[in-house]
Amino acid sequence: MDEQCLTLAAAVIEKADREHRADEVLRLELKKHRDWLPDIPRSVSRAVFAFYRWRGWLDSPAPLEQQVRQALEWQERFRRQPNSISEAELRSQALPGWLAGQMPEMPPAWLRDLQTEPRLWLRARPGQAERLRQQLGDMAPGFVGLLSDALSYEGSQDLFRTPEFHAGEFEVQDLSSQAVGCLCAPLPGDTWWDACAGEGGKMLHLADLMQNRGLIWASDRAEWRLARLKRRAARARLFNYRMRIWDGGSRLPTRSLFDGVLVDAPCSGIGAWQRNPHARWTTTPQDVEELSRTQQRLLAAVAPAVKPGGKLVYSVCTLTQAETVGVATALERERPEFEPWPVPSPLDPGEPARAQHWFWPQDHGGNGMFVAVWRRKG
Ligand SMILES: C[S@@+](CC[C@H](N)C(=O)[O-])C[C@H]1O[C@@H](n2cnc3c(N)ncnc32)[C@H](O)[C@@H]1O
């Protein structure tokens, strides 16, 4: 790696902290150098993320540039000889010590995936995946389960600068997140509420599944995220939605009752630690406890808005007990009007016997996630 990239990577690491996420600092730094060829931003990103992935192995008093170089060497060594590092070492050096108390079982495959570079997933517009595969090139072969619009990109173009992106022909969306939209399975003409719509990743998928018909209420407490959602929806020419600011309080954005409500809740994000390794060192067990309470509060607030016979879907990109099974079990205990709605996994459609209402869709190369699906009785 050349000195220019090393220096910039070290500058990003120096500035990043709990309030300034490394990926955000990196984005801002790279924005200052828009004229660079895509190879340089890619090398700097690789170096920054390798640093956080291998931080537990680095010689911390050494200058940052030297540590970044060491991290890249560890990354390469692990790529060539994944078994040269034991599971016990991964558990103790790649992750903060408090996690074991929150996640008693750490699947060995997940531990190893954490130390590799993540795949880049795209969601093509309905029925357009094959055409997009040919236009963009460099896609991994095959489709995953029922997610026939999902493509895994392995090339080196900056996809955000392609004409296909500007024409709204695809979204960058993680595979497990795409599974959430499929589990919602809204029908054209339905009325849905995406209560934590954020920048609209899942809302746009729901709108596509509804063929731009029916209505989606998209709410979030962050106005700036909804502004991005609006830009993305315009690019995709999706119009069957209304936006509202909502902070999770008991005053709901509308009195409507919905065929389905999705709560893609704020969470500790541990399922995205492969993609965002900086968060391993800034997240705390207090965050987990606080977020689990927020998730329960959000579910309790939206529950009355689900029509009898309607669906309630809860998803989080994390794997702690308190946020996933803990929240789902509390809802089932406290809200007997909701019953489990078992469906086959969109990622393993050949296994109808394994229909379930709790899902961990991460075994196919996407983020770690938990999804639960219930139906309101009546
Ligand atoms: C996991 S993100 C949503 C991602 C989005 N659904 C997507 O697919 O792109 C969680 C969202 O919850 C929002 N949020 C956090 N606390 C909230 C609250 N109390 N009420 C409503 N939204 C909240 C955050 O602003 C964030 O956009």
3D structure, described in words:
The chain is α/β, with parallel strands linked by helices. It has three domains: 82 residues, no CATH class; 53 residues, Alpha-Beta Plaits (2-Layer Sandwich), CATH 3.30.70; 201 residues, Rossmann fold. It is 39% helix and 15% strand. Strands 4, 5, 6, 7, 8, 9, 10 and 11 form an eight-stranded mixed β-sheet that branches. The longest helix is centred in the C-terminal third of the chain and has 18 residues. The chain is globular, with a radius of gyration of 21 Å. The chain starts with a helix and ends with a strand. Bound molecules: S-adenosylmethionine. The site of S-adenosylmethionine (SAM) has 18 residues, from α11.
Which helices and strands, and how do they pair?
Layout: H1 3-15, H2 22-31, H3 39-53, H4 64-80, H5 87-93, H6 99-102, H7 108-114, E1 120-124, H8 129-136, E2 150-153, H9 163-166, E3 170-172, H10 175-184, E4 191-194, H11 201-209, E5 215-220, H12 223-236, E6 241-245, E7 258-264, H13 285-302, E8 306-316, H14 325-334, E9 338-340, E10 358-359, E11 370-376
Parallel strand pairs: 4-5, 4-7, 5-6, 7-8
Antiparallel strand pairs: 1-2, 1-3, 8-11, 9-11, 10-11
The protein binds S-adenosylmethionine.
S-adenosylmethionine binds next to helix 11.
